[in-house]
Amino acid sequence: MSRGIDPTELPAAKSPRLSGPTTIDSLDEDILLEIFLHLPSLATLLRAALTCRSWRRAVASSPAFRRRFRELHRAPLLGLVAEPQRDAVPAFAPAQHRDRDVLAAISGGDFGFALTALLDPQGYAPDVPLHWHIQDCRDGYLLLANWDAELLAAVKASTH
Asked: Where are the annotated segments for Disordered (predicted)?
């Protein structure tokens, strides 16, 4: 019996010939972002995004990706801001972590500078008392009040 071509079967697809090895740079941006979704933490994502311009641009240019990443990964506690003394400026106390990416975020953070700026070292407001008190904290912002001077300050911690 001779083997003829069955008209109901599709012809076999030809495999594309690769011109060279596949590298991570040749990945489509959507595939790269899908891989980034599987990273364990925001700190790890930040370190990955800082690897090169195209990776940073991929993360920065996609609000939908960032929103999805936040839904899948809870932000770690980096530390606490407390009022150590009644008339002292609130201070940042870093949390103890074993995750090296979180430790890198803590060590690269500028948590104290914004608070020490409230001390007014240049003397622009020498008559303002330094009685700053924490009123609220949300999304990385502190709301501080100095009721003696009738001032409010919103301070955002930043990481480098």
From this structure: 1-21
Angle between helix 29-36 and helix 53-60 axes, rounded to 10 deg: 80
Q: Is 132 among the domain residues?
A: yes
Tokens matching residue 71:
């839904």
Sign, CA torsion 37/99/71/160: negative
Domain presence at residue 10: no
- Are 65 and 108 in the same domain? no
pTM above 0.85, yes or no: no
Which bin fits 140, alpha (ψ -120 to 50), beta or left (φ > 0)? Answer: left
Domain extent at residue 34: 24-72
Which stretches in the chain have pLDDT values below 70?
1-20, 86-88, 108-130, 157-160
144: Cα separation from own chain's centroid = 23
C-alpha 137/C-alpha 83 separation (Å) is: 13
In a domain, 16, yes or no: no
